[in-house]
Each structure stands twice: as C-alpha cells, then as structure tokens.
Amino acid sequence: MKQKTHREANGAFNQFVPTRIGGLETEVALQVPRLTNESTTEYQARTVNLIKRFVALYKENNDIKWSYRYPVELWKFDAENRIVMNGSRLYSDHYYVEYSTAECEDPRTLIAVDRAGELILADLLRLFHETVNKKAVLLKNNLSFLSSMKPFTYSFSCHEDYSVSPHLFDAICNQNFSIQSAIWLSYLATRIILTGAGRVGPSLPHEFAPIYGRQAMMQLAEESNGSFEYLSARMKLLRRQIKDVSVDFGSIVPFEISARSSSITCLRSHETMEFRPLINLRDEPHADPYFVKRLHVIVGDSNRAELSTYLKFGCAQLVLLFLETSIPENPIILDNPLLAMKLISRDPTLQTSVPILKGGSMNAIQYQYWLCDEIEDTLNQQKLHLPAWGPAVLQEWRKSLDNLVTDPLMMRDKLDWVAKYALLKDHFPTGFESTNQTAMKLDLIYHKIGPDDYYTELVHAGKMIKIVNDDMVNSFKTTPPHTRARRRMEIIKEGSIKEANWNYLVRKDGKEFWLQDPAN
Question: What pLDDT does residue 358 have?
C-alpha cells in the first residue's frame, strides 16, 4: 500500500524523529490487614503512613530532595521520594508505592530495569517485615479487591512514557481528529491481547464507563475537560448506542483479558483518575519541548511476564515511529475504540469482532496483523531505519499473533493474561464465577512480589519464559541505562546535589544542571 510521508501530507515539515526512549511508572499496592473496628478513613490514613515508611527504608540518596519544577516553579509535595541508584525513582504516590524506571532505549533494557525494581521492592519488603509490619503484602497488579474506595479510584495502573516529536504529540493529543490519533487509539484498544494481565472479579459498574460512538468521537474536537454534567450526557449517548451492541454490559464475565480496560472511561482527558482516558493529554516533556515531547499512556496493565512487557514497549515504539514518518492512504480505524477495548477484553477466545469506521468489522488479532503489515511495508518502501532491536520485535509480534490465531493457550508461558487464564482453567476445569473467592485469591497471588512470589516460582519451573537473564537484572539494581539516566547519576554521585528530577539538578552551591535530551 502506498504511503504518504508527513512532508507530502502536511507540506514542509521538520521530520526530526527523536531517539526511541521510554519508561514505565508502576503503582504497587502495599496491603496490610485491616484492624478490628478500624474505619475506612482510618485504614486509608494508616496505609498512607505505612507506604511512606516503606519507601523511607531505601537509604540511598535520601538527602536529595525531589524537585517538582516544571518548568521553573517549585511545588510543595508531601511524599517520600528516593532516587534509585539505577537512575529510577521510588516514591509514595498517596495510596501506592510507585517505581518509575529510568529512561530506557530498548525493550530488553526496560525489562531488566523494571525487574530490578521488583527486586528492590522485595528487599525493602523484607526490611519492612522485620521492622514495621510482618503481614504486609506487595501486589504488582491493577485492582485491589480489598478496597472500599469509590469505583473511580478502584483501579491503579502501570503508566508508560514515550519520547515523540512535538509534531506527533500535537497530532495525537490535539482535540481535533487526526489519522495519527485514530490509529493510536485503535492500536491501544487491540493491543491488550498481547499486553493484558488478566483479571478475575466483577467489572466496575458500566455507569462509570461511558462509551462513545462515531459521532461522539468526531465531536471531541469541540469538547473541553469532562464535568459530571457532561458525563451524564455521555451516559445518555451510551444508552442509545448500546442497543446496537450484542453484549450485555450489565452482565458479569468471570475473566477479562485486561485488568485496566473496565476502568477506562473516555477517549481523551488530562485526568488520570476521575476520567481515565485512552489518550492522556498531559504535556510534561521533562526535556526540551522544542525537540521532544513525552507521550503519557495510562491504559496499560501491570505485567509480570517479560514478553508482555517486551511487546508493550517494543510494539508501541514501532507504531509511534510509523506514525512519525507515514500516513497510510487507506487506514483502518476502529469505529469505537473505547467500546472495542471493553468488548475484546471480555472474550478470552479472541473471536469478538468490532466495527471499523468505513464499514465491516475485524477482531483484535486481525487489526494487529494489519498494523504489523503496514509497518513492515512502510519500512521496506521508504527504507526507514529501524532501531537495532526493531526487527526482533516485529518478528516476535507476528509470531505471537500466529500463536494466538492457532490457540491462545499456546502463549500460556509467555503472556500474562494467558498464563493466568490457563492457571484458572486448570484449577477450575468446570468453570468458575467472577465472585469466586478462590479464583480472586489466585489472581492476586500471581502478582505478589517478595516472599512466596508465585510468578518467580513459575519462571524457575520453566513455565514462564525469560527474555533477560538474572545477571543483567541484578546489574540494573545499581547501574543506570545508557541514556540521560547515566549522566544524571554521575552528577548525583559527586555528592554535592541537593535537589533533582529527571532533567534538572541543583548543586548545594546553587549551580544548576539541565539534562534536556532523554537519550543523552
């Protein structure tokens, strides 16, 4: 299929494409038993205090204040923050412990830095057991079944960050419709078959998940940030459109592919909690905004399987490179990506087809095949230079889709949702209900970090594949990747820094360091 370059499609255009840099921000639940007669408010306040004490156990760089300057203002923020020796950030994000990886330039490094974070958290949990609370549990998942908070705050997430050109950022995040944003929305909606972590348990009430159709999607150009009145109008739209959908969202399915999908409530928003969007409009580049922007993605599940993380990062980066450089003449766009993601998530057989904008329908595997083909064709026609890791990702992407077409259970040792689904099928051969307490506990156990780490036991038993070896993971507990993170930590190790963040450091004598290129 013939492609148009951005220069052909948009006239004179600076085709600067930044080095493919990215990272993960993973919220991890620290759960402790609720005390007798302890109110919800008291329990939440105690949990917040315990999380701060947990993070404080990391002693490195504890005299350096995390700076919230963007671009020049200093915001006060009452939280425990630690700069990890590998260039990452560990902090208390109110109700959760959050580990934000250092900037990474390839999928294997990202996996290693992410897993290094799991080891650091496991070390801290052992200290926490010895000094604070013996019954604390760390869960790298997306839903707290023990939570009594309102549904909007029921879900926590794994955020992703990708460096893109200002042009692509504007095309995706602008309220006006664009081919780039439409393809990105469609990609995010269908990629859950590769990146979903799986979930057991009742969905959030569908009243908290307004779903848009074609007209609503086109109207987004005129919309501002959501309000409760606006949400009400969207819900009315949902009730009109849902009549045409052959699924009862009032029913409960026992298993979903994506733990995060039912919590996503809109297409675009600056919010990350009250209105969780497929496209987050946050514009905090943590770099020179004239040359590079940070695309913030909040729809992802928290993965343990290394291949899930590999495909999450690698495929997203290739899709963004594709959108940076080309616009398909006949793109395939999902008619309703938000509804599509929810429908796909409810069908582990992967047979569900969803409408496309120009008529007809396709399932998630077919859409992922189309996008993979388009990227390969574009690379061949325009002789674009893939990152060194790009061909391997494309090969693994296609191989994974081939296996899912044949039988999803072929991926039980590779993808999170399939591994969890196979575990549940083995344990409940005649089926289970979404409210089955044993099934919900098995779900939680899969995500447990620290002592009795069930996922690690699966790896050691050869039931889950590894992409990076343990030596590489252990090295990244203290060694930053070869990106801006390395230079940042070199300056910090000099011992004279009093304030720091991703791209800004202040020495005790007042000298400032600005690191505006995420790649260097």
Answer: 85
